[in-house]
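Handout, section 4.2: multi-component inputs.
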Amino acid sequence: MSVSRLAAALGGGLLCLWFQFPARAAEPSELEQVKRELAQLRQSYEARLQSLEKRIAELQQASAAPPAQPAIPAAAAPPAATSPDAANAAAPVATNAAAPIAAAPSTTSATAFNPAISLILAGRYANLSHDPDLYKLQGFVPTGGDVGPGSRGFGVGESELGISANIDPTFSGQLTASFAADNTLSVEEAWFQGAGLVEGGNLRVGRFLSGIGYLNERHAHTWDFIDAPLVYQAFFGGPIKTDGLQLRWVAPTERFFELGAEIGAGTSFPGSSGGRNGIGSTTLFAHLGDDIGESASWRVGVSLLAHRADDRRYDDVDSAGIPVTNSFSGRTRTWGVDGIYKWSPGGNAQQRNLIVQGEFFQRRESGTLSHDTLGAAGVTSRGDYRATQNGWYVQAAYQFMPRWRVGARYDRLDSGSPRIGQVESGALTAADFPILQSAQPSRTSLMFDFSPSEFSRFRLQLGADRSNPAATDHQVFLQYIMSLGAHGAHKF
Amino acid sequence: MTSLLKQLLLALAAVVVVPAQAALNVVACEPEWAALVKELGGDSVNVTSTTTALQDPHHIEARPSLIARMRNADLLVCTGMELEVGWLPLLIQQSGNPRLVAGSPANFEAGRFVAPLEVPTRVDRSEGDVHAAGNPHIHLDPRNVAKVATALAGRLAQVDAANAASYQQRLASFSARWSEAMRKWEQQAQPLRGMPVVAHHKNMTYLWSWLGVREVATLQPKPGVEPSGGYLATLKAQLAQQPAKAVVRGAYEDARASQWLSEQSGIPAVVLPFTVGGNDKAKDLFGLFDSSIELLLGAGAAK
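Output:
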């Protein structure tokens, strides 16, 4: 995205707003004309109303006579349908033809304002060749989040309860609560948003899935694979959530162009809960997208993510095998690019469709690393720390006939070789930081899924996970995803 | 502000603002409403449809291009009745266009102006993808189109008051031509009364109800649930007892089920345009009904 294009979009948008007001002020002669037109309209409507009232009177007389004879022979009328002529004739009775035929609720009750409720039930069976409790992503500081293939055998996944409604004419709100298999409840999302506060703008406040990347904003049950790409697991511990506020703005251009910014507490990885005032994380993202003919569409994006880490701790062992706690303080910057391409014949995804997507992230961290910050093995040492790490994935999912899909994904991470002050000065050796030893974890996954309807899906996923350089974890997953209640949104 | 900067901004304004001001920007959710807007708006409107005749209006994704179109829309013309529930609310929200919020004048829902058929007495997903507000495929009854036209012309005049007179004139012209055409179609379609047919999905109900055609079965066992081989075999057995004259599907629907049934039972498969653009003859609303009736008469006359 070039700067000039951005400036053009912003300048154009502002001017658009500016020009709107003079354009809408009516001239006096125009006012006269509109008044005349209104008078004409009123006359024509009065004539219509009279004719309709006449029809009502006629129909009322007709319906007084026992069973009204439908215009179409009874045998020809579809059983479920009301007699069409009667239905059509009855329509204008409610009100005149230009007003909506909204059936007025006969009783008013508090339940009419109940929000939309949706529930996702998910569960799985996993067969893993390696003990998932020993799972680690070699070369990457543990995030404390959702990392690894999960437990062996049968398990219920996260059941997700979503409640949403409009709050008033300006705001709407949503809560997504997640019930985990270990009987814990967590708040996935809890936000309100105001749309159109500025033309093309959306403000969201609360806890929400950050707008970075492509997959991050999508709920896990809409993913094409059972688990998050390794780069999400290693960099954010699963999709990153922001506690704070988000502003997005869609440019008034023919091609989709969107800018977004978030500020938040930044207390989750790669940030840390430092107990400070102010802003802990800043996020910027931009999206550009369009169609290619009727059959294909695409979107590309860039994201930037800045966090402050204060005493971000992780557990490791030193060269003597003694468990120690290390701590990082400093700046952490992540940037990424993402792209998705969807194809279906004539834009009708019902029979066949193809989705290809990929994302790349790179993280740079610089600051101070404390080794054995609690003094468990003796002496606490401090030194400069610099690391550049990256990761990416590409995946494709193809629906080859209605309800059946097949997919493949390749994940790769590069931990790089961090520069650790204590190791460079010779005070400690690289063996004192086993987790930070360089590695290139990778994973290959294959997926088959079957969706009996839009609301249910069964999936088989096979994986070969080489996160641990010592051994490859062979994985087999079976998964179900069921969605109940309010109709889910078809997000691109 | 320097004069150079001023010129630059004015040039930008010309690029961004002029196309928006030239004509009312109307986004229709389905081709039939885009065609109706064209009839009523003429050159005063610039209308596009978010779906084509070859796409299923239930199953559309909130694509980036659609968000951009919503962003710049002055008027939205959709069916409502939950037909677009999977994608339209999301598009409106993501576009950040405050004019299009549900219930505002610029958000026109055609379904509110007609009497719905097949309003379920029980709303439960075990019944398939049912719509609580009734069957939303209202446009295949031309009497509904007439009602929607009247309401839509009023709405166009409300949103674009400067051209109000033109919309009313065009409505008068359209209504006259439409009544004339309806008389013609009803006469042509006399032989279709009572004709038994099998449809793919419950999306032709309004057409059957208008023409008196009898739908004896649907290929989908429940709305939105695609047929299995076993179900089709049952259907074949049923049709051996109670023959139908045609196996009808819309242009956007999967051909395989109706072709299989047609081959097995010897009942001709008929592809109706379903909406404007669904075949070469259905170039506008008049062509849509001309073609639909012609195709049904062709099937009815066979054998």
